[in-house]
Records
---
Amino acid sequence: MHDGSGRILVQGLSKDFGPVHAVRNLDFAVHPGTVTGFLGPNGSGKTTTLRMILGLVTPTAGTATINGVPFERLANPGTIVGAVLEAQSFHPGRTARNHLRSYAAAMNVPDAQADRVLELVGLASAAQRKAGTFSLGMRQRLSLATALLGDPQVLVLDEPVNGLDPEGIAWLRNFLKAFAANGRTVLVSSHLLREMEHTVDHVVIVSRGECVYNGHLDELRAAQRARVLVQAGDPNALVAALHQESLTVEHLPDGRLAVTGADAPRVADLALQAGVALYGMQEERVDLEQLFFQLTQGQYGGAQIQQPGQWGPPGGAGFGGPGGGY
Ligand SMILES: Nc1ncnc2c1ncn2[C@@H]1O[C@H](COP(=O)(O)OP(=O)(O)OP(=O)(O)O)[C@@H](O)[C@H]1O
């Protein structure tokens, strides 16, 4: 009997394919009311993990549960979990409505539900069109409609924005946020943090099958300390004034100073008090995509982004362990 919590729990989950360690000792939880992004480069183990959560791949070790039980022990799973995996295929000659009705019949869901989900995903006007004539974006929506047929509590989506145009991505973002705001659970994978940045609250980042970050996106942003870059008339005098306030200052090759621990107005006030003229000032924006590449650079091998000092050692707060784990 499941606990009805809507929670996905992954504990010590690993999968080997012969010599390939596709997923290594993953631990994370996905809670109702949130959209959790499962992020990592291609080949980092995202699909394998989702397939283990959905009972389609047997783990080498560890467990994945939904509502406290493995997927295969859920009675009538389609009413609890809706899933969209990659490469969904449809009978090209079948209309969208008939495709959904055939799934509805298999799930013991009333036919009327087919029209309801078509409406939900914005395909009502295409109900009578054959799936074979659909664009990639429309096929993605039809896949989502199929996953929604059982009015599930939990949605699991593998790379749903692949092939979507900006309008489709924006639509999906709003849909997923509204779904989660209803107290439901969303786990969505992507190899691009940028595409998910405004959709997800919580992120689990994997690289080479291992967890490299598990936490709130806001905390990830905050972990990268912002810097104020200033061009001063008398850099040495400004450094002395900033040091008096225990601020960290770095000399940049272009002659500017990089100040950590204060925002731009405070640096400007301190410069004014010290009688130092400022010729330029800029607050460095946190570039999440860069952060993502840093975290997963073990996998990219050659990713050339090095910003020593901006990160704590691997294994620090919020991080999954050495090397930095969808
Ligand atoms: N059935 C399989 N047999 C052998 N190796 C596999 C199998 N499925 C996945 N792998 C390997 O496991 C690793 C993880 O693959 P997986 O598809 O889970 O990653 P992914 O992060 O989803 O990547 P992508 O975004 O490219 O699909 C890869 O090295 C892949 O080649």
---
Amino acid sequence: MTARILSGKEFAARIKADAKAEAEKLREETGVMPGLAVVIVGEDPASQVYVRNKHKACEELGLHNVSVEMPETTTREELFAKIDELNADPKIHGILVQLPLPKALQSAEAEVLERIDPNKDVDGFHPVNVGRLSNGAGSLVPCTPAGCIRMLELADIPMDGAKAVVIGRSNIVGKPMFNLLLQHNATVTVAHSHTKNLAEITKQADILVAAVGKPGFVTADMVKPGAAVIDVGINRIAPKKLVGDVDFDGVSEVAGAITPVPGGVGLLTVAMLMQNVVTAAKLQLKK
Ligand SMILES: NC(=O)C1=CN([C@@H]2O[C@H](COP(=O)(O)OP(=O)(O)OC[C@H]3O[C@@H](n4cnc5c(N)ncnc54)[C@H](OP(=O)(O)O)[C@@H]3O)[C@@H](O)[C@H]2O)C=CC1
Ligand SMILES: Nc1nc(=O)c2c([nH]1)NC[C@@H]1CN(c3ccc(C(=O)N[C@@H](CCC(=O)O)C(=O)O)cc3)C=[N+]21
Ligand SMILES: [Mg+2]
């Protein structure tokens, strides 16, 4: 058996087309064009690629977008002041502070995320949005998990009653993925570095999500025949070679469906960010 390849490009195009139509309708009805500010502190090369992709997507949809580049030496107070300024800027509906922050600011990460107006928090990382998601009333939901769910829906992969296993429990991927799958009536297990007998658990999954950060971590023997395997991992193993957390060649012999890396979940993340910018603009009009 060879798995169906779930093309991020195709699904991302559909998500962006929907967001674009919604943005155009909003502009016609209210004169408001949704705007995104991406704040990048320091010069992490990986972050710069993602930031470029986000701006390209904004251009494609005609969204207002600004890039705020701050030096590695930025202080907590300076970053707060910038966030306060963007919170107050009526042209900016979405604010994203690129993570990871430089070492010196890492201990302030939670405070930085809490400084963002929850209605402008297009990453969905603010505790208010984390709580809304957990309560089942999330409107700004973290882009990567939201993109994975939208893809499962568009690909007609049933979540209702399915057994789902998420490997990874980070605040930005694993935990929100758990909440979303649960809301879609999957029976969800979250595995992490302390999990025992991981392969036994993953082998039960109809939907297996890998968000570990280790190249080729999920191998064919860990996968139930016919399962949908979603590879969130982005691992740069050489300057121009990107791989996921899933051993693609081996697993695609066993799985029913699989996402490639690159060209998979990363593209959905960017597409879902565009949707969140439009959603955020609407939330602000309601205030
Ligand atoms: N495609 C996209 O758009 C995005 C991709 N990513 C990528 O996804 C991956 C995960 O990111 P992120 O969630 O931030 O990563 P983190 O490093 O924050 O979390 C990794 C998780 O994997 C778990 N883990 C580590 N080793 C094992 C193991 N041996 N067995 C089981 N679980 C293990 C950790 O467990 P523990 O908690 O116990 O330490 C942790 O929960 C990365 O490759 C990242 O680059 C991230 C965001 C967006
Ligand atoms: N505040 C914050 N929000 C994030 O959403 C966030 C972040 N910080 N820090 C880093 C991670 C990672 N991330 C990706 C975005 C796009 C691609 C992407 O476009 N990937 C393409 C191209 C990748 C490439 O060519 O390098 C692909 O997989 O095909 C990947 C990963 C967002 N993240
Ligand atoms: Mg992390």
